[in-house]
Specification:
Protein name: Acyl-CoA thioesterase II
Family: Belongs to the C/M/P thioester hydrolase family.
Number of helices: 4
Domain Acyl-CoA thioesterase 2 C-terminal: 168-270
Domain Acyl-CoA thioesterase-like N-terminal HotDog: 33-109
CATH superfamily: Acyl-CoA thioesterase, double hotdog domain
Strand order of the largest sheet: 1-2-4-5-6-3-9-12-11-10-8-7
Shape: globular
Keywords: Hydrolase
CATH architecture: Beta Barrel
Amino acid sequence: MQYTSELARVLRIEQLSDDRFRGPSMNTDVFNRTFGGHLVGQAVAAATRTVGEDKLVHSLHSYFLAPADADKDTEYVVKRLRDGRSFASRTVEAYQDGECCFMMTASFHHDLDNGPEHAEPMPEVPAPEDVPVPEDIPSGVPGAKKDFREWDIRTIDPNVAVPDLTTVSGRSIWFRFKGELPDNNAVHACALSYMSDMTILFSALQAHPGYKVQLASLDHAIWFFRPVRVTDWLLYRQASPSAASGRALAQGRIFNRGGELVALVAQEGLARDLRAGATQVPVRGN
């Protein structure tokens, strides 16, 4: 079956050689710079292509080194650090016009190990069907909903959710992919990597309504605990423990509809005072 969604197109990278891949550019009406999740998702896809099907990504750590042009394809170079019986390790470097704009390390693990199990419970929140569809995505990107029309993203009103007393600045969001994707764990891990960058940094401004800052992802990490399907509803519980010196840290716990904790995300981003006439995120026409 041929999947024709924009997300499937983005994750359908071209293999140039054993360890070199080309990822297609964004099809965007909004972004000047490549969306961070676009780079992360394609980098995970590239690394996955060099690892056997017996192992899945369980963690990644990445850095956004320079702005990437949303209208240009990106080349990914994978380095095979280690292939063990239980784990495999990769680094991925992303290039545009010969300049490295993004790098990632990722680790893959087989699913044959057993050990103790526990997980934080999902917080009490309204069901996604009871949360209104917003006019736009709370991301700091004006008109972002146009580019992310394949996703259903709903922010829960903090006044109707059980508050997290340990959270300084945070919120909860339901999201799911509205299209079709292959029933494949690796594909959905790439799709979750793509989506994990959307909205998380903006959660740092929940405690500062109306405060105008320049936002940009600096680094991004994900730990994958259990297989996930992004075509089902997922709860993204976001919190920012600290913001200072023009940077903000945001963390996110992702639960499936059944209440299982499936992934944890951490990101530090630029959050410095916005200069006059600028937008929080560079967009077309600015």
